[in-house]
Write a structure and sequence with these properties.
Structural class: alpha/beta
Strand order of the largest sheet: 1-7-6-5-4-2-3
Shape: globular
CATH class of the largest domain: Alpha Beta
CATH superfamily of the largest domain: Type I PLP-dependent aspartate aminotransferase-like (Major domain)
Order of helices and strands: HHHEHEHEHEHEEEHEEHHEEHHHEH
Strand content: 5-15%
Number of strands: 12
Radius of gyration: 20 Å
Length: about 375
């Protein structure tokens, strides 16, 4: 069986370092917002190229607290509209709803699966105040075009970078997390930089926003038992921060391995029944997922099962068709629906060996 993602093998590389970090944490007994969190926040800000980073409990909270922070600062108001890609994971849309804002779902580019300047422009009006660009599957969205559009229309531009740790632009070599007004990351275990539990972070150069989020994540409190605003409990766990610091050192090498596998897939998968992902060969894609399209997905899945290839579908049901959102959105989005009916994600990870990659290729070419 070729696993879709072998988390044990990925994390076992760090076992001794993890055990040492856990032992140190146990000895210091500083479990909430300790030195490990501040250390990782500093390291991750440096990695992304931003001035600030603040850890949160998960990626959804990171995105929600960005929006709540902007409301706290008066840059957004409840009821404002926020553009999001229609084919994103539901968390992107939930963050908008949790912040009491209104999501405007926009169809993605059918090749990149991401928002582009052209897609978004037609949906702008005076009630739209922000854009959330999702770097879906690890590939940067239309960063340059969306930044131009946001600046021209005085809109906030926010990154959902939950799947894009380390993705970089071609022109200025800027990384995800430093391509907008603020960015949200998830450190869910399957991510390119994954914890051994939940975790998230916000990166930005906006000190006012960071201070607002620090209050919001900690009950609205800067000093213990003194609550300045109505806040939440959303703090990056201290031991997870220690683990993330250890894994961050390997992130670029892991991303390089993912790109090598992706390039091998792209050059050697020749089955015309499969539509391969768009990729320009640059560092703007870190291949959180390698996603193909196939017309008869059910038949393709049986072929994979028969040949012991694990897979995943990111995502089987588009957000606007989920029961939780159907009554709120009630939309017809043909591009998004077609994508969600046809996509399937293949094994890709930094610990896949060449023989496993070759096996996947052979199985796909015999479908």
């Amino acid at each position: 069986m070729i696993k879709f993602l072998d988390l044990h093998k990925i994390n076992n590389r760090f076992r001794k370092a993890f055990e040492a970090a856990f032992s140190k944490s146990l000895d210091t007994s500083h479990y909430i917002l300790g030195d490990n969190v501040s250390k990782f926040e500093s390291e991750f800000a440096d990695y992304c190229g931003t001035q600030y980073c603040v850890g949160t409990a998960n990626g959804l909270d990171a995105l929600t607290l960005i929006l709540k922070g902007y409301i706290q600062l008066g840059k957004l108001n409840k009821g404002d509209k926020v553009i999001v890609p229609a084919n994103t994971f539901i968390a992107t849309i939930l963050s908008v709803l949790h912040a009491e804002l209104v999501p405007v779902l926009v169809e993605p580019d059918s090749e990149t699966y991401n928002l582009s300047n052209n897609n978004v422009r037609d949906h702008l009006d005076k009630t739209v105040k922000a854009i959330i660009m999702v770097h879906l599957y690890g590939q940067l969205a239309d960063v340059e075009g969306l930044n131009q559009l946001a600046k021209a229309n005085n809109l906030l531009l926010i990154e959902d970078a939950a799947q894009a740790h380390g993705a970089a632009t071609n022109s200025k070599n800027l990384k995800a997390g430093n391509l907008s007004d603020a960015a949200a990351f998830s450190f869910y275990p399957s991510k390119n930089l994954g914890a051994l539990g939940d975790g998230g972070a916000v990166t930005t150069d906006d000190l006012d926003l960071i201070e607002a989020i620090k209050l919001l994540r900690n009950y609205g409190s800067k000093d213990k038992y003194i609550n300045q605003i109505i806040g939440y409990n959303s703090r990056l766990d201290d031991i997870q921060a220690a683990f993330l610091s250890l894994k961050l050192k390997s992130l670029d090498n892991d991303n390089t391995r993912r790109r090598i596998i992706a390039k091998t897939y792209l050059s050697k998968i020749t089955n015309p029944k499969l539509k391969l992902p768009f990729y320009n060969g640059s560092d703007n894609h870190v291949f959180y997922a390698f996603v193909v399209e196939v017309e008869d997905r059910a038949g393709f899945i049986e072929h994979l099962k028969d040949n012991n290839i694990e897979f995943l579908i990111h995502y089987p049901i588009p957000p606007h068709k989920q029961d939780a959102l159907r009554s709120l959105l009630n939309l017809q989005l043909p591009i998004t629906e077609k994508i969600h009916n046809r996509i399937i994600s293949l094994p890709i990870s930094p610990v896949m060996v060449d023989s496993e990659v070759d096996t996947v290729i052979d199985v796909l070419n015999t479908y």
